[in-house]
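SEQUENCE AND FOLD
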Amino acid sequence: MLKFKLWIYKILVNRKPGISYRYHQYHDGSVGIHKIISWIYLLWINFCYYILFCHFLGNIPDSPIYEQHYLNLKKSESMEYIEKKHLSVEQFVEKIKDYDVISFDVFDTLIFRPVSIAADLFYLIGTSCCTLNFKNIRVWAEWDARIKRNEKYGDMEVDLGEIWKNLEEDTGLDAIWGQKKEIEIEKQLCYANPFMLEVWKRLIDMKKNIIIVSDMYLSKETIEEILHKAGYRGEKKIYVSSEYRLNKASGRLFHQVIEDLYNVDTDKVRVFSGRNLLEKKKNIKLNKYSMVHIGDNPHSDQSMPLGYGIDVLPYQNVNINVAVYRPMDMSYIIGSAYRAIVSNHIYNGLKKYSMEYEYGYIYGGLFVVGYCRFIHEYYKKQQLDKVLFLSRDGDILKKVYNKMCPEDNTEYVYWSRKAATILMANEDKHDYFRRFIYHKVNQDYTISDILNSMQLQELIGQLSDWKNIWLEKEKEQEKNSYILAYKQLRKSDFSEEKQRTIKEKIEYNFSENQLEKLRKEHFIDLKPEDKLTDKNSFLLRRFIEAKWEFVINKYDEQMRSAEKYYKDVLRKCSKVTAVDIGWAGSGACALSHLVENVWKIPCKLTGIIAGTNTIYNYEPDASEPFLQNEKLVAYLYSQQHNRDLLKKHNPDKEYNVYWELLLSSPTPHFEGFYSGKKGEKDMYISELDISLKFGKYDENLEGIKDIQNGIVDFSNEYIECFKNFPYMFNISGRDAYAPMLVAASHNERYLKKIGEKFALEVNVN
């Protein structure tokens, strides 16, 4: 029978690489009905290939660059799942509390692993034994051990020793060492399903008779250690297939359980038909054995025990929606870890989470962990004295970073686009006017609004000066034009008569009457209530430039206060980096220029950003020189790497906003630095005698807190799972961006839905 199955597998799956690829894409990791459908799918693609001559199915298809997933736009994934398919802890306990014996499956029921497919655990074992392709070698070693066992003893239940004996023969790896290493890694990575742990604790308090029934090659002692470490204590007995050489899948392990507990002739057990607990009503008399089994496998944990007179209460496998909602186009190991941690958390059934929380957990968590690791590696490589996390994007980053790298010297420092723009006004006038004026053209801002945002409200009352300023400028330009015209005329080879004619025309064009006429036609007044448009924006700039000495004097207080602040931050530092979200890197570059060139602080400052300007920006190459000379470094993408993301990330579709939302902070906007003690809402630093001024809060603070909580929870779980595997924190920018690519599926519908809950300002306010 076994040889026949292998022959069928070889014929239907392994003959054509395209068929094998398509089958495994659908089958691997599937459970229940999905696994049955995968077999039907296998037959269908074979039929299409051999009967309908669809020979293209024999070739592995080109992989799409970006995946498309239909995400839930109405409610969070956890809400949808619990409301439709899952019992609460209280309901679950109520269903089973009256049974004399309660049996539990172990893996994917009581215990979770941080990998989406159990065999992916072998990737991590492979790194310890330095063996290429170890995962597949380990899988086939186990399969071969089962075949040998079947040929010799008539059953296929093997223990870890038999598997590693095969591995030793095949690879030369020491079997004793290998067993110890695999058990060690299993113990390190396994953790409790929080839903089932709550159920378990309540049953223990009720002094219920609990047993464990598991199909597993690990020993009973190892299973016991894993359970106890996870918080499961008080079980009466553990049944493991490797110990009894019987399994749940055939039903024979349940034979053994019933025989031990009820002293029943196992040959007669099969005739008894169990009843599905879900169909039982409260207070109805229990079945013959007063026993219920709980597990996730539709066959081994549900169909089999039912056939032997044991009631069941199914527990839905948490990977139910992996293929529907999670990105698959990721590196094998990080992708498996990411999908598992998300599924284990979101779909265990214990809690409902908000859409904002899940936005942080699912789409921001991996990015923040990877970004923090990237920063840490830069910190070590450059031998930095300190990492500066710039407000407000750095708020959540610093929280996670300190958890990951508590030994590194870090500080959360106050900075903003607005503060940088003001302090750099005299150093980069172009950027000053670009952010404050040109970025706000035709957006319903008044001139009064603009001057207030520039903290130049005193100039509102001086707008009446504009006419005289304009006239003086015009006269000067006209004079220069007049002189130039005559110079050109004198250099010409025209005849005297021709020159005289041209001279008369020049003089007429520059006559007082003509000029006055032109002034009336072209003069545009500047009034406080006027909207900022493309017609008056340049004139507003000219007005401010005419008052430039006042402007610089106005900002002098902030400049001196900021200098005090950063001299204190950077004392005893010679080399630091400033961390921001992006995109041109102007925040870090501005701070670097001020520190090194204006304030003359003896400290080299570089910048780290998540991503750079893209091809969709008006100035896509704005930061290119700084990226090239490594004054700036980028994590997710830049001109130098992940160019597909560079072309995908479109600020016109609000991509910048969605990323900034992930790093938003429930703190007010930072406005600037001032001397002395100011308002009650400001932060006064007495030892420096300066105040940090803050503005308004973003809308939906609770939603922002939920996003941060989601990121923190994912980070904590990832750190806890892989604390003994430091290489698991080497998360590429491409992998970190992968969840957001899924969120951007189908014209960013999901992201737009999230964005509707907030009102973020991405420009200088």
Notes: Residues 447-530 form one domain. The first helix runs from residue 2 to 14. Residues 73 and 750 are 6 Å apart (CA to CA). The mean pLDDT is 87.
